[in-house]
Amino acid sequence: MSLPDMAQSGALGAHDTAPGRNRASNPIVLGGLVKSRGRLARTTRNNCSQQHNSGDIFMLDFLNDLLWGKVLLVLLITVGVGFTVASRFVQFRYFGRMFQILGASQAFKRDKHGHLSSFQALVLSVAGRVGGGNIAGVAVAITLGGPGAVFWMWMVGLMGMATSFLECTLAQTYKQASGDGTYRGGPAYYIVKGLGSRWTWLAGLYSVLLLVTFGFGFTALQSYAVATSFGDAFGVPVLYSGLALAMVVGLIIFGGIKRIARISEVLVPFMAVGYLLIAL
User: Fold this and answer.
1) In the prediction, which pLDDT does 203 show?
2) Relative to the CA of 223, which of 90, 132, 187, 214 has its CA 20 to 30 Å away?
3) Would you state the pLDDT for residue 113?
4) Are 123 and 272 in contact, with CB atoms under 8 Å apart?
5) Which of 26, 2, 3 is nearest to 14 (CA)?
6) Hey, which residues does 228 pair with through a beta bridge?
7) Alpha-carbon separation of residue 68 from 61, 64, 74, 115, 261 (angstroms)
8) Cα three-residue angle 198-202-203, rounded to 5 degrees
9) d(CA 14, CA 9)
10) What's the rounded Cα separation, in Å, for the pair 147 and 164?
11) SS3 for the chain, per residue?
12) What residues does 184 pair with on adjacent strands?
């Protein structure tokens, strides 16, 4: 039914009783029709938007459950077990030697070129692996998965030692010296140098994903955890603590790897000891 027909038939209950007057020309009726159709259009758009958002949320939940709950867990365990067997249980064979090297005075010495010491390399590695996620993530895992989550975290940690050992070995094998006395290396380097130039695309893809993940994902997550923790504990607004954290981190990062190592060798031991004490 068209707009004039609906108005003329009195579909909206208009009560214009003037004889011989067409109700379609009644401004009250027309105004009511326009408002009604506007409300209907807005309602339809809102419903469509809610359905679209619900579909997006469902897809994200599905991908999150698939990748983090199934694929990632299987890959971590499978790769970790494979590397453990291939390396003849390297994380257990050299467990004692790890503390011997750390206890030796040579671990804290740097050469004449100013290269990082063994201890600085260790704390840099720990700083990259231990953070807010080890506190908040463990609590969330136990809350959602129950006590069984602790067992799987132990298993992934034990098997992941072999994975980390082989990653560090490849990084040391294929690292490249720079003019300022530092070294550059990592997955992108040993992918190209170890697998060949035809895998350059994989090294580039890995670098981009790593930049996005650490530059935005991990940084945003950990800074949010720190800012909200200060807000909950001391009442500091998230904006102020976030800006302060960004300035401090910027001063450290833009000083280069040597400044990061100097700061890490001071902060990381306190962080590790404090983490263990809080966990106990």
Assistant:
1) 92
2) 187
3) 60
4) no
5) 26
6) none
7) 10, 6, 9, 38, 31
8) 95
9) 9
10) 26
11) CCHHHHHHCCCCCCCCCCCCCCHHHCHHHHHHHHHHHHHHHHHHHHHHHHHHHHHHHHHHHHHHHHHHHHHHHHHHHHHHHHHHHHCCCHHHHCHHHHHHHHHCHHHHCCCCCCCCCHHHHHHHHHHHHCCCHHHHHHHHHHHHHCCHHHHHHHHHHHHHHHHHHHHHHHHHHCCEECCCCCEECCHHHHHHHHHCHHHHHHHHHHHHHHHHHHHHHHHHHHHHHHHHHHHHHHCCCHHHHHHHHHHHHHHHHCCHHHHHHHHHHHHHHHHHHHHHHHHC
12) 176
Paired tokens of 13: 């209950």
User: Taking the mean position of all CA atoms in its chain, how far away is CA 71?
Assistant: 17
Task: Determine the Cα–Cα distance for residues 107 and 122; give it in Å rounded to an integer.
Answer: 10
Residue 145: C-alpha distances to residues 31, 105, 138, 159, 198 (Å): 57, 43, 10, 20, 42
pLDDT in tens, the chain (280 residues): 433 344 344 333 344 444 444 444 444 444 444 445 455 555 555 555 555 566 667 777 777 777 777 788 788 888 889 999 999 999 899 888 888 877 766 666 666 666 777 788 788 878 777 766 677 778 888 888 888 888 888 888 888 889 988 988 898 899 887 776 677 888 899 999 988 889 999 999 999 998 888 878 777 877 887 888 888 888 888 888 888 988 988 888 888 877 888 888 888 888 888 878 877 7
Give me Rg for the CA atoms of the chain: 31
Displacement of CA 271 from its chain's centroid (Å) = 21
Residues 133, 222: contact at Cβ < 8 Å? yes
Give the predicted TM-score (pTM) of the model: 0.65
